[in-house]
Amino acid sequence: MSGQSQRLNVVPTVTVLGVMKARLVGATRGHALLKKKSDALTVQFRQILKKIVSTKESMGEVMKTSSFALTEAKYVAGENIKHIVLENVQNASLKVRSKQENIAGVKLPKFEYFTESETKNDLTGLARGGQQIQQCRAAYVKAIEVLVELASLQTSFLTLDAAIKTTNRRVNALENVVKPRLENTITYIKAELDELEREDFFRLKKIQGFKKREIEKQAAAARKFAEEQFEEKEAPKKGVSINSTHNFLSAGKKDEDIIF
């Protein structure tokens, strides 16, 4: 992009310069805060990713154990163990609830399981079939715990991924678009103000030179007028003395003529 497209179309004034500087300060602070937020979310994102990997690795072992426990229960208590389970269960004893966790301003959903009622531990059936059913139940409870944890981690993973992408887009926009545009606008306004200042200085120098010439002309005219006034005042005095001297010389010449 050229410099023209990388700056805002504003009027180059001191007020606009102050506004642009304030906006640049705000954009700089916002960029720093968003960068810190992005870093914090990235750290949390990597931690969740590690937890997801370890949970999925443990989930395979847990699901295998629960499947073998179910097979053992069916082998010992018989294939049809559904009625035995239904007799001991009135309401769901294991439930899942959700809550929110705030990470750098991003609300992450988190699931957790809880138990509301106690289940009967009756050992029903021959050959310890009830004990095998309880072991199968414990294995599947463990599997549910792992599944709930994995669901919570994966939901948080997706939410963090979207938040990180949005934050990075904002950071890139501030860093590559908003801040350069404001900086170029400030540079343009400063250049225009400097040019206007130079023009005003040149204009003032021209006005001062013109005023100085006018003052000199007025002073010269005033001096000339004063000299003319002075000459007018002194001229009669000079005329009287010359006439009297001329008369005096003329009278002396006449007296000499009479004597001779």
Description:
- By secondary structure, the chain is mainly alpha-helical.
- It has a single domain (14-195), classed as Helix Hairpins.
- The chain is 78% helix and 8% strand.
- It is built from three helices and two strands.
- It has helices at 14-77, 82-88, 129-259; strands at residues 94-103, 106-115.
- Strands 1-2 form a two-stranded antiparallel sheet.
- Strand 1 and strand 2 form a beta hairpin.
- Helix 1 runs antiparallel to helix 3 (129-259).
- The chain is rod-shaped, with a radius of gyration of 53 Å.
- The mean pLDDT is 78.
- Belongs to the V-ATPase D subunit family.
- It comes from Ficus carica (Common fig).
- Pfam families: ATP-synt_D.
Break the fold down into its secondary structure elements and pairings.
Blueprint: H1 14-77, H2 82-88, E1 94-103, E2 106-115, H3 129-259
Helix pairs in contact: 1-3
Brief digest:
With 260 residues, the protein is mainly α. Helices cover 78% and strands 8% of the residues.
